[in-house]
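Residues and backbone
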Amino acid sequence: MGFRSETPKPVLSVSPQNWLTEGDSVTLSCEVTDSYTDWTFSWYTVDRQNQFYSYFFDEEFKPKHLSDSSRGSGGSYTLSPVALKHTGVYVCRGEREEPAIYTGYSNEQPLWITGESPPVSLIISPNRTQHFTDDSLTLSCEDQSNSTGWTVRQYTDSKEVFDFFLWYLFTESTMEVNSLSSDQTGVYWCESESGENSNPVNLTVHERPQAVLSVSPQNWLTEGDSVTLSCAVTDSSTDWTFSWHTVVHYRGFDYQSVEVKLLSDSSRGSGGSYTLSPAALHHTGVYKCRGERGEPASHTEYSKPQPLWIYGESPPVSLIISPNRTQHFIEDSLSLSCEDQSKSTVWTVRQYTGSETDFFLWDSVAESTIEVNSLSTAHTGVYWCESESGEKSNPVNITVHERPQAVLSVSPQNWLTEGDSLTLSCEVTDSSTDWTFSWHTAVPYVQFHFNFLAEDFKPKLLSDSSRGSGGSYTLSPSALHHTGVYVCRGERGEPAIYTGYSNEQPLWISGESPPVSLIISPSRTQHFTHDSLSLSCEDQSNSTGWTVRRYTDSEGVLDCSQWGSVTGSTCNISFLSTSYTGVYWCESESGENSNPVNITVHGSSCVEAPFSVLMIISSVVTASPYLLTTIILLVKCYRARAETDEEN
């Protein structure tokens, strides 16, 4: 038998309430929300969820028909007086007509009965009904005979009844929950196979509240100042007491861990405030607090860390920074060392960036000296020296910035005639005004090193670079030997900190009598892909000391050996591509230059189309005599056959 999906679902209600004391009366009422009045009702308790039953039947539970269900056929089922055995979860169902048509099962309604002398007790450890997420919990069923025939059962807001052992560890009648979650809020009780029950217990699992730590007046202090750490909990309870901790780093041969260490005088801050007065160097460190309340105690999470940095006049050790500044740029190198009068090596450089770690674990160590080969912004933080006994140096706040960029521009233009004047201008994209500038030409790296370096070129400092230290470098008059690719760089401070090298700016100078000529074969500046090209440096003495160089926007300045084949002072290219578009020139080791030549390599172009059409026409014309002869023979053959047919 079954029911049609379109039949109504009954509604089950409880009066006066779900929670009752043994001896009370309670009425379960079932009604169907349709216009028919001839419904009769049956009553069930919900047996434990069974995954096999749920799979084959359209219910989340296995209903158990009550033996005296018929007395509630009119729609009301009364328990008076209620007893412990009535604890459970109930549903009802309606039926009418012959043959019977059934509704679905109603909503569930639990009844929780508490008695004075239950046959078994549900023991909860820790013994409280309010818990936090991640707490551990033990539930056990204990009776006088120490029977093991009891099962811990659970009913949650999801309206499902479980045997507890189905989803957590169990040992006989004891259940262990290692880490509670909020969805484990519910009612728990012990039940025997014969239907006896313990008193039910309503357990609530709350999200663990957060402790919030603040510092007044500030985190950075001078030895002798006063500072107060204040801890508060983000909930409405007022009975919290507080404990105070420092963050401690432990290390072993092949592991590390960051833990909290209870302060020896933590109890004096139990009310929520922990004051250090006067503050001393050994108070430098990272602090956390935690709230607790109740018996047994329940705890908040540890607060987020709050550092205290204390400066003193005579620290037992000094943190030496090289280069000696607190502002650095990415990719700078840095050395940190702990130095005291006795040259002790038991000091450790420590770092705080929001989470604490021993410095040596992520860079090379030489006794008490730490070397960082290439800084990153992640190295921004506070550094200090600390001994195993807790002595400390003054802390140092080190900041690692993105390296500012120098920007190079040319006025009036990049292409000039020998004798013209031009100005290179360099500026830095930050708010500082105390930059001085150096000037360089870009020299190609040898091919082996090219792809392994930060820049695409080797910068060569100009011999008269200092005259452009203010940011402008003027060439007047310009000469052939000024042809080349230029970059600039900013520096400031002592010891100096540097920007990165600027963008490249080429200068192309043409003169009437260059010491060498760049000979191009075929002799044109416009070429197509897949063409071959020969570039030669020719002077009157037929010297072979010249090198063909190229500048492109994508690759910068390169020697022929990096993109062609070299024979003496000749550079050969077998197959051109559009990436070969650029400026070419000859240059000697002494810096003499030819006039530069701008060569452009085009892809497939319509300019080539006429040649292709001519080739097609030529092919057709060549084939025409054969086609004409074939046509004449076919015509003669056709006429001869026609004449033969007429004679017949």
